[in-house]
Amino acid sequence: MLRLTEDAVANRLSRLFARAGLCSRTEAVTAVLTDYRPRGLTLDA
Question: Which of 2, 12, 16, 19 is 20 to 30 A from 26 (CA-CA)?
Protein backbone atom coordinates (compact mmCIF):
# COMPACT_ATOMS: atom_id res chain seq x y z
CA MET A 1 0.00 0.00 0.00
CA LEU A 2 1.37 3.37 -0.99
CA ARG A 3 0.90 6.13 1.51
CA LEU A 4 0.47 9.08 -0.81
CA THR A 5 -1.81 12.05 -0.47
CA GLU A 6 -4.22 12.96 -3.26
CA ASP A 7 -2.04 16.00 -4.01
CA ALA A 8 1.06 13.81 -4.39
CA VAL A 9 -0.75 11.53 -6.82
CA ALA A 10 -2.06 14.51 -8.80
CA ASN A 11 1.46 15.96 -9.03
CA ARG A 12 2.94 12.67 -10.22
CA LEU A 13 0.21 12.28 -12.81
CA SER A 14 0.79 15.82 -14.06
CA ARG A 15 4.50 15.16 -14.51
CA LEU A 16 3.79 11.87 -16.29
CA PHE A 17 1.29 13.53 -18.64
CA ALA A 18 3.74 16.34 -19.44
CA ARG A 19 6.55 13.87 -20.16
CA ALA A 20 4.33 11.73 -22.39
CA GLY A 21 2.64 14.65 -24.14
CA LEU A 22 -0.77 13.71 -22.77
CA CYS A 23 -3.45 15.76 -21.03
CA SER A 24 -5.62 13.35 -19.09
CA ARG A 25 -6.03 9.89 -17.61
CA THR A 26 -8.31 9.05 -20.52
CA GLU A 27 -5.56 9.89 -23.01
CA ALA A 28 -3.10 7.82 -20.97
CA VAL A 29 -5.39 4.77 -21.01
CA THR A 30 -6.03 5.18 -24.73
CA ALA A 31 -2.28 5.45 -25.35
CA VAL A 32 -1.64 2.21 -23.48
CA LEU A 33 -4.47 0.36 -25.24
CA THR A 34 -3.34 1.52 -28.70
CA ASP A 35 0.37 0.89 -28.02
CA TYR A 36 1.17 4.61 -28.35
CA ARG A 37 4.87 5.36 -27.79
CA PRO A 38 5.74 9.04 -27.34
CA ARG A 39 9.23 9.98 -28.46
CA GLY A 40 11.78 9.60 -25.67
CA LEU A 41 9.55 7.58 -23.35
CA THR A 42 9.94 3.83 -23.16
CA LEU A 43 7.99 1.39 -21.06
CA ASP A 44 10.66 -1.32 -21.10
CA ALA A 45 12.37 -2.12 -17.81
Answer: 2
